[in-house]
Amino acid sequence: MILRADIASGSFCLPDCDQAPKRGPGTRPFESAREALAAGFRPCRHCSPLLTGIADPPWLVPLMSEVEADPGRRWHDHDLEMLGLDPDRVRRWFVANHGLTFHAYTRLRRLGAALRQIQLGEGVGQAVLASGFESESGFREAFAQVFGNPPSAVDRESSIWINRVATPLGSMIVGVHDGGLCLLEFAERRMLDTQLKRLSRHMGRVFLPGEHPLMETVRAELDAYFDGSLRAFTVPVQAPGTVFQESVWNALRGIPYGETRSYARVAETIGQPEAVRAVGRANGDNRIAIVIPCHRVVGSGGEPVGYGGGIWRKEYLLAMEQAQAFHLS
Ligand SMILES: [Zn+2]
């Protein structure tokens, strides 16, 4: 797919966008959105070329509507075939986009729905019925495999709900629990099973795909941030770390929108001017991209060094914030 950028307007489009520039000397073709961004073009607001591949593809929509309509349903390969779908294709798409097979995804959703019911005060028996497990023992076993604990021992505090959220820079994985936002990372660093398990151990919590009311707040604030109308996030954040990490992350939240600081300056801010390298590491360990603005820390010469989500995203965020700050002030 060739994306076309309009040199005069500075934006680039999907081929089928009705605002896409016509081929000609005033345009530049790009093989990928990433290359167009790196060349300084911004995504068209009309066709959002960075969002392709994030929405479920049309062939998958009927299946996903059925999953949403009845999250407790158990699915088998022949159910997929009945819907005219190739189970292998479904599996490949899920592994690439969710980091899990379709069956693992629906099983986790069923476990998540059951956990939520238990947390809301339902008995285990009720939760088993509603989540499509055939027997209570089967349910307890599946539950313990995922959580490492029997259902009654898993409390509200120990689960983190994860989902994808679409942004102009690509899909992000968002993780929330009742206490606040605790994970926001670009999904390119895919949340494959092993990564999730590692993070789960590190945070002493269990990850489940699903919706949580706070996700709506996160989505709304990210939308407002990317359209330039929001400068400071209000969603509660929970970022537990070492004392040193927490002091660095706090200092990052103090860097104003549209500005940058060097690692050395952050080290001075926290009263440890000699700890420049450790500041760099704590910056890289930030698990809540954008909201804890680690992208605002730059090299001593102002160059955008090191970013987990990719330098091109850091450059984009800084350029966008600086342009907005200039407009608004
Ligand atoms: Zn467009």
Structure report:
A hairpin with a 4-residue loop joins strand 1 (3-6) and strand 2. The protein has a four-stranded mixed beta sheet with strand order 3-1-2-4. A four-stranded mixed beta sheet has the order 7-6-5-8. The chain is α/β, with parallel strands linked by helices and 329 residues long. Helix 5 packs antiparallel against helix 6 (124-130) and helix 11 crosses helix 12. 43% of the residues lie in helices and 14% in strands. It is built from 13 helices and ten strands. The protein folds into four domains: 3-51, 3-Layer(aba) Sandwich (DNA Methylphosphotriester Repair Domain), CATH 3.40.10; 58-154, Orthogonal Bundle (Arc Repressor Mutant, subunit A); 158-226, Double Stranded RNA Binding Domain; 243-328, Winged helix-like DNA-binding domain superfamily/Winged helix DNA-binding domain (Arc Repressor Mutant, subunit A, Orthogonal Bundle). Zinc ion binds next to loops.
